[in-house]
Amino acid sequence: MSAPHGGSITDVAGLRVGHFTDARRPTGCTVVLCDPAAVAGVDVRGAAPGTRETDLLKPDTLVERVHAVLLTGGSAFGLDAAGGVMRWLEERGIGLPVGPLRVPIVPAAVLFDLFVGDGRIRPDAAAGYTACEAASAEPPAQGSVGAGAGALVGKLFGMAHAMRGGIGTASLRVDGITVAALVAVNAVGDVIDPACGQVVAGARGDDGLSLRHTTRAIAAGHLPEPLIGGATTIGIVATDAMLTKAQAGKLATMSHDGLARTIDPVHTMSDGDTMFALGTGTAQRTMHLTLLGALAAQVTAAAVLNAVNQAIGLPAWPSAAEWRSR
């Protein structure tokens, strides 16, 4: 198994992260605050996305920079949490100048965690506001917190066979440039360690003693009835390099390679896999986008592994750490 990958998205100067984790059931949200505002892009690859303010990240649209990005549980209901992030920013005079007003730009993406506990409880505007209050430049907690609190993986053979997902982060610094990722992993597929090809967390067998390796099971003719929705991996890759808006979009695209290395299957009809990219420019330097993209994929893959390895199990869904210690 790969060694844990260190660092966090807050290693990118100008970014702060705050979690809100609901005490009533496993759900929550995670905000990344950008100070100064960051150039941003997005790439939505899953077929069941829940997003907000993603169209404005297209290269040919007006807005160049964002003030925060929100990752949240609660499915489409969880998008309400972005309103709380906007309110927190507006109270501090942060936003896009529009006449005498400031309009905070807060793209967001959701994952589906409504089957874990009482699905009537989900992040709202108060949750988003609280996450902003908690935001810090310190390395954020990982595992079963924030947007990863209700996350599960390995769902294709039914929720009863799943294991715990979570939220993870990682970073690299190369030639004076930092590249980092923050990913909430709630996938239909299994999480695979690309170093050895083994399943770290995923669909358990009927005997409860083995892991199926979902794609191999499908290839062998074991054909489950796929979920309708019910999953999604969402995340952010960030760098202190200087980026254009078009480059940020491409960086988000290349970061999905990190998901493909560690989640199998990925980008399914039941996932809304979405990756944002942020460029703070605080390094006052550029790096060739091919190199940045390669690093983005690497830290995204590391963040996925950290997410499941730091997770805490629930009675029905063991964590990767619990599974290894059986």
How many beta-strand segments?
A: 16
CATH topology call: L-amino peptidase D-ALA esterase/amidase
Terminal-residue CA separation: 16 Å
Q: Report the portion of residues in β strands.
A: 25-35%
Please provide the ordered H/E string of secondary-structure elements. Answer: EEEEHEEEHEEEEEEHEHEEHH
CATH superfamily: L-amino peptidase D-ALA esterase/amidase
Anisotropy-based shape: globular
Q: What is the annotated CATH architecture?
A: 4-Layer Sandwich
Could you tell me the mean pLDDT?
96
Q: Output the number of helix runs.
A: 6
Question: Rounded to an integer, what's the Rg over CA atoms?
Answer: 18 Å
Described by strand count, sense and barrel closure, the largest sheet is: 9 strands, mixed
Main structural class: alpha+beta
Share of helix, binned = 10-25%
- How many separate domains? 1
Low-confidence stretches: none
CATH class: Alpha Beta
Report on the structure:
The protein contains 6 helices and 16 strands. It is an alpha+beta fold and 326 residues long. The chain starts with 14 loop residues before the first strand and ends with a helix.
Can you summarize this structure?
By secondary structure, the protein is of the alpha+beta class. Helix content is 21%, strand content 27%.
